[in-house]
Amino acid sequence: MPRDELGILSEIKRSYIMRRLKEGKRSDDRNLDQFREATITPNYIVRAAGSSMVTLGKTKVIAGVKIEAGEPFPDTPNQGVLTTNVELLPMAFPTFESGPPNEMSIELARVVDRGIRESKMIDLQKLVIEPAAKVWIVFIDINVLDFDGNLIDACTLASVSALKTAIVPASSIGGKDFTVPTTCTPISVTMAKIGDSLVVDPDLEEEQISQGRITVTTSEDGHIKAMQKGDVGFFTMDEIKKAIITSSNVGKSLREKYFG
Amino acid sequence: MMKVREIVLPGDQIDLQGAKARYGLYKCGEGQFCSEYFGVLQKSEQFVDVVPFNGAYMPRRGDKVIGKVIEIGPSMWITDISAPYTSLLHINDVPWRTNAGDLKRYINTGDYIYAKVLSINEINESWLTLKDVGLRKLEGGTIVSIPSPKVPRIIGKGGTMVNMIKDETGTRIVVGQNGLIWIDGPPENVMLAISAIEIVKNEAHTIGLTDRIAEYLKSKKGEISGNSK
User: Fold this and answer.
1) Do A13 and B143 touch (CB under 8 A)?
2) Is the complex ipTM more than 0.95?
């Protein structure tokens, strides 16, 4: 499908999106706070410790979890280790290139990581084999297969659902396999600012004309676990407050719908 | 189950039944022809074609296409017509009197134009022109894209399909040979036209499509007008 890979959004599409937003609708007939239909396929990769494929509209990502025994960080001897990595595959979008991670994939990995880490979704203290010597290291590797906007939320959904099914291979060191100890379900909700509106789950065209992006991750208790402001642009205090409320409402309904 | 046209794979031998091989076929033996693409077989009395399911658009002289201006040079606009190569529109080929260096005033980057392919050479450089009836800069509306091999189905026999979508939805539609489609009209009608085009795109290989689209549009149109009253 030919898309705006050259980064030049057409004036026609921009004015169409703006015109529809004035009526309170999006270019694809969604409401401002409506997510695209997501499908989550847990255990997509049979041989991984945990995995999940998520499609969000035409965006498609696969998350894989690998769990290995290793050394803890010296400052946290009584905790397991969590690392997140995102790979933007060249087949996902015309401008994605192979090679070392770029700004976009680093930001993506860090925001996803922050949501999972700061919500304490994984109980890292239960992943210690021998304090200060041997702990379980959880690797989350996310591959972006198709890009049509809002990678942050797709990647978070994929990571969370992959972690929920992940199994720690303790039998390899003489123990008994157990599922990764999880405590909550963090859900990130990304909004793009277009004109005066905040649109939830922006697609590619909306991302291209956005005047700022804000991501808020919440957990079941409604607490804010992570936030990230991206792109060039600014948010007023009221907009940030609105973003937080929207995020917790949308996050709640997503949690019930996909992890209920 | 919908009736579908015959689907062929690359290398499938095709029984011509006395007709001539035309597009998408190659000779694979004495008097034998095979399919070049994964697509549907189209047989008429005289010719047999294989219409691929997907593929890049290659410009041909005389095609009317929709292109996006991506860059402006001193004397020409560089446009993306969703072909492997960009296409050029020279200031001599627009209907306005323009001065070199002042091209932005007429067409800016990000604008869409409905243009005709003026010429194409052996290294795939192509030139567009706006000097013909109906060719212009597109303003308002929205753009959707479909694979270019499916354009003939959107247009239909003698324009039946696109005219029906236009009449039933009350929208203005311009179809470019390169698979870009411009639609203008009231938003709910545009959404309906887009959904109809989506169906044509996904069911391009089936038989009796025009009737099904007519039915679909009639049922949907009832809903829309019913809601507004």
Assistant:
1) yes
2) no
